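#help-structures

NK: newbie question. if I give both the sequence and a SMILES, will the prediction place the ligand too? trying with magnesium ion
OV: yes, paste both and it writes out the complex. here, I ran yours:
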Amino acid sequence: MIRNWLKPDWETGLGIANLPIDRFINLGIKALILDVDGTLLPRQEKKLHSSVILWIQEAKLHLDLHLLSNNPSKKRIEYISKQININFTHNAAKPSSRALRKALISLQQDPKHIAIIGDRIFTDILVGNRLGLYTVLVQPIGSNGKTSKNNTVQRLEQSIAAIFGAIK
Ligand SMILES: [Mg+2]
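OV: that's the protein plus ligand as structure tokens.
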């Protein structure tokens, strides 16, 4: 089972701001659960890049959005959520599914119509697959809104996932 749980449905190779929103609509996705640190902005920054804000504004026209972060700082995640005016959960303890289950209830959508987008296999992808969401792995974001050159952690995760036979 762990094999399937570590495999994203869509391994994009892209940063979040470059994901085509049409693809989600065509798949019947109604809502997105978004990781924060490494996905929407680098962990050491507080302000979202304009390209990410634009992408979120476009996504909001078609989809419900919710931030789901493992970061324990409510202050940080709230500050970020206010920049884009969407609901958030901090201290989510992914890959534990408790916080995600709660977020799913608030979205009132079938899990198969919800996508989770994140930069980590062992938190975002694992919890999304456990609950039957459409799982989307993005490249970690850099300070210019483009993908970060430092992708060491995700590459390490991919090596470990490969041992389980999940990823080539
Ligand atoms: Mg992350």
